[in-house]
Specification:
By secondary structure, this protein is mainly β. The protein has 4 helices and 13 strands. The chain has one domain: outer membrane lipoprotein receptor (LolB), chain A. It has a 13-stranded mixed beta sheet, with helices on one face.
Length: 267
Amino acid sequence: MQLRYFVILGSFLAAVIGSIPASTLAAPAANPAKTAVSEEASAAILRMGQSLRAEEFSFQAQTIRAYAGPKSEPLHIFHTIKVTVHRPNRLLVEVTGDDGATKLAFDGKTATIYSAAQNKYASIAVPEGTIEAMMKEVVGRHGVDFPLADFLSEAPNKAFLTGVTSGSVVNTVTINGAPYDHLFFSQPPGIELELWLSKNEQTLPRRLIVTYRSLAGQPSFIAQFSDWNFNIHTADADFAFQPPAGAEQVTLTPAAAPAPAKKTGGK
């Protein structure tokens, strides 16, 4: 799983307007270990990926991000995220939370990030014009934090398992009267993933918990999914961003490349 995407969307304007800074995520292992994901877990993730490759769908997620405060105290921030997808080149993400309201709109050519609290926005050109290219440009090049991106990629099952070295189905649980598979995955160095998938043909995500064991305070990201809808009918206008009155356009500059990690002994 490409966990650099899995941070609170409320902080994604940090590079633009100085919002809440995202936690520093662990870098991927230099020499990835062999993958040991059970056949049952792999099959469930594959079914999920097939469902999420649908041309159009929408869903909602309630998220909680744990992070360390200035005195290393454990703090939490809450968000409600509404996502609308029209593959291959339209995306709308609307967020409300403890730090205000934000929006990401992608119309196939331009990704626009908007903060309602600051009434500021930044636009980023996406030459390739796909959701996948937009995520690489906005997240990879500009360092914008984007949650749940693996579920929106062109191959969600492959994106989710990127970097994962082991995984299995823990058990079957009942949530609101329906059965769900509870899965557990490990990703070096020190990242643990719990995922609950509906135990049916669609195999849709219901819950996700990401725990960073190698970071101070072992922070976590929690998402609870709901309102999955694969019968939506969107128009291009739904993904077009119209600046509100008085909104100020700012420039989002490319993020600085991180310094190379020092080699240490052992594995």
